[in-house]
Amino acid sequence: MKVLWVTNTIFPQLSEALGKSAPVVGGWMYGLARDLTEEGLSLSIVTVRPKMQFSQHTIDGTNYLLLPGAKPITEYDETLEKQWKKIIEDISPDIVHIHGTEYAHGLSLMKVYPNLRYVISIQGMTSIISRYYYAGISMKEIIKNITLRDILKGDGIIGNKIKFKKRGHKIEQNYLKLVKNIIGRTQWDHDHVKTINSNVNYHFCNESLRNSFYRSKKWDIDDKEDHTIFLSQASYTIKGVHKVLEAVYFIKSYFPNLKIRVAGTNILKNSIGIKGKLTKKGYHKYISRLVKKLDLQQHIVFLGFLDEEQMINEYLNCHVFICPSSIENSPNSLGEAQILGVPCIASYVGGVPDSVKHGETGLLYRFEEVEMLAQSIKSIFDDEKLAKKLSENGILAASERHNRKNNMNTMLSIYNSISKSEFN
């Protein structure tokens, strides 16, 4: 069977061939691609980047292609139509699998070839995410923290909410109305997809994690760094770091050595001079002020972008992992933490409850209720028995949910089913 993947991410293998840094996102696809190829599937993976040259490489049995776009990937690009014609003529795929509905390059393929057998995997859903983009921050605070960069680039908190909403309606909903087959993994994405297109065939398939997380040693309560919280990212509002700060404020007097360690850009970096003003985001300004207001300067560290091994070290060293987002489908960071055995706390939003059973495989709290988050953190810090219970049960649940062989077999079954169905 020949399958064409359309992705938003340049895979690490192609990145290396192009002399570029490997991406730190999209890890759930890499292992699955390798497993499918080893199973004998003929796989081609195509992505698009504006102003880059066409590139094609066959690496370890997989065909990787990079198409040069003429417009931003969030806009429909007519110049891709001719390129898609050549690719489909060369590959003649039995199935086209589009990963995610956030970017528009798959729509140009669907316009040129409306009758191929398509299936789309749901990642997030921008049309729904836009509802929660302010993440509990008041309009007064949003306006007070607008920066020059926000104004010039139009991608501050308000601008990004508008962009997410537009992308959801112009791109995402077009995908969902055009396609007959969807792959999802939570009740949340199922219900939203079915509301947009009640006739779509919904296929359930869990995602696999990055290779290193299956091979790693497990979290050990005796080896952790006491009273340390780890967050996998915090670069924009929906990731909810501001709510963690508010929660920690309530309990920092109990734990003077408490630390919040955050992967990603250093939000607290000083913005000096014109260059600083042109790079400082409004949300980052808000976080900087909040840290100072709550006197948490000595309690938070931004770690920069981390590779797989560095992420694993942070998970294993922390006392608790928190997924504090205002909206999520099923965050892979949560799965990574659970499969390593890290005690987890997560906000009760979107598809997260499909991954966490409160009191068994993690602790859940309502996103706005920072007092509940504070007490959940305190309970794990204070109660070794609870921490061990969440650790052990998290490993069992995540190991089943992210079982690579099962997920690969499920995906093959979906492909086989679609290949026998009518064209799109």
* Percent helix: 40-55%
Beta-strand residue fraction: 15-25%
CATH architecture of the largest domain: 3-Layer(aba) Sandwich
Low-confidence stretches: none
Strand order, largest beta sheet: 3-4-2-1-5-6-7-8
Question: Can you give the mean pLDDT?
Answer: 94
CATH topology group of the largest domain: Rossmann fold
Q: Could you give the count of β-strands?
A: 14
The first-level CATH class of the largest domain is given as: Alpha Beta
Overview of this protein structure:
It is a single chain. The longest helix has 22 residues, at 157-178. The strands form two sheets. This protein has an eight-stranded mixed beta sheet, sandwiched between helices. The radius of gyration is 22 Å and the shape is globular. Helix 11 links the parallel strand 9 and strand 10 (259-262). It contains 18 helices and 14 strands. The chain has helices at 12-17, 27-38, 80-91, 105-112, 126-129, 139-144, 148-153, 157-178, 187-196, 211-215, 241-251, 273-279, 282-293, 308-317, 332-340, 370-382, 384-401, 404-419; strands spanning 2-6, 42-50, 55-59, 62-69, 95-99, 118-121, 181-184, 201-204, 228-231, 259-262, 300-302, 320-323, 344-347, 363-365. The protein starts with a strand and ends in a 5-residue tail after the last helix. With 424 residues, it is α/β, with parallel strands linked by helices. It has two domains: 2-208 and 404-419, Rossmann fold (3-Layer(aba) Sandwich), CATH 3.40.50; 211-401, Glycogen Phosphorylase B (Rossmann fold, 3-Layer(aba) Sandwich). Keywords: Transferase. It comes from Kriegella aquimaris.
